[in-house]
Amino acid sequence: MTREATVGSLLDDATARIGATLGLETREARLEARVLAAFAWSVAPAWLIAHDTDLPAQVQITQFRRLLARRLVGEPIAYLTGVREFYGRSFQVSPDVLIPRPDTELLVERALARLPVDHTVEVLDLGTGSGCIAITLALERPLGRVTAVDRSAPALAIARHNGDILDVHVEFLISDWFSALAGRRFDLIVGNPPYIASADPHLRRGDIRFEPLSALTASPDGLADLRHLIAEAPDYLKPGGALLLEHGYDQENAVQHLMLAANFCRCQRWADLSGICRVSGGELSE
Fold first, then answer.
1. Tens-digit pLDDT profile for residues 129-185
2. Are residues 279 and 199 both part of a single domain?
3. How many structural domains does the chain have?
């Protein structure tokens, strides 16, 4: 006689399959299994623990297993649930936007360190995607005037939706980098542009396979968009304004050289908690 599936047995099976298929440790695989089940059944994660021996209805089992099957082929959890946390807040995401990553919180932290809390400054977020950077800066510095641009209309729709959900004012514009910003000047420009080399094998592995390629890669060496932004940014910065960019783990020297060539001064670089340099910046002479 076949034993009926309980909440606990379903999670145990999913944990084992996720771990074996995706190469995750048991703790991480268990967390993913719980996230999928909670989303499939519209319950809080704590409910799964309290109802470990419950027998889900067949329709619930089917819903859960469909999500699990998609995860097992590598589809990111964030795209399956439509949500990703960034800087302590939940952001809506879709395959039209890059999934916000903890690494990018370093860019936000460095930007906040430059932004005053007591008076208005003009801030520009280039290639905003989900809007997580621009919206976070606007929420953390309510007196700032934040503009966010993206060349993708579907991405900008996601960003606007996130702005509405989080009840913050950000000016969202369709723009291919600076193309719609003629005559505008900003105190701070931030960006997380595509920076992965087009032949990088990581593009064919894991979650990244499902993310928009245009938001990930730029030219054979990954520096094309970084070169463009650094060269053009001085025309859109106020005197004394600053540019902060996220970049690849091995690109800090190239980015520093590009900033110096574009006449940025007081150039700096910052490492994440793993000691990997992820953000570089410089100031425009006054």
1. 999 999 999 999 999 999 999 999 999 999 999 999 999 999 999 999 999 999 999
2. yes
3. 2
Residue 247 contacts residue 255 (beta carbons within 8 Å): yes
Q: What is the pTM of this model?
A: 0.93
Q: Which of 161, 180, 184 is nearest to 93 (CA)?
A: 161
Residue 243 bridge partners (DSSP): 189, 282
Mention every residue, 6+ apart, whose C-beta is less than 8 A from residue 91: 83, 84, 85, 100, 130, 131, 132, 135, 162
Q: Is residue 29 situated within a structural domain?
A: yes
State whether 26 and 160 are in the same domain: no
Domain end residue (candidates: 73, 106, 129): 73
Strands 186-191 and 122-126: parallel
Residue type, 36: L
Residues in the chain: 286
Buried b or exposed e, range 91-112, using 16+ CB within 10 angstroms: bbbbebbbbbeebbbbbbebbe
Give the closest residue to 129 by CA, choosing from 78, 68, 65, 183.
Answer: 78
Q: How far is CA 126 from CA 10, 151, 192, 196, in A?
A: 43, 10, 7, 17
Domain containing residue 279: 98-284
Q: Which residues contact 149 (CB under 8 A, 6 or more apart)?
A: 124, 125, 126, 127, 128, 172, 173, 174, 175, 177, 178, 180, 181
| Residue 151 and residue 214 share a domain | yes
Clarify whether residues 69 and 197 are in a common domain: no
Cα R_g (the chain), whole angstroms: 21
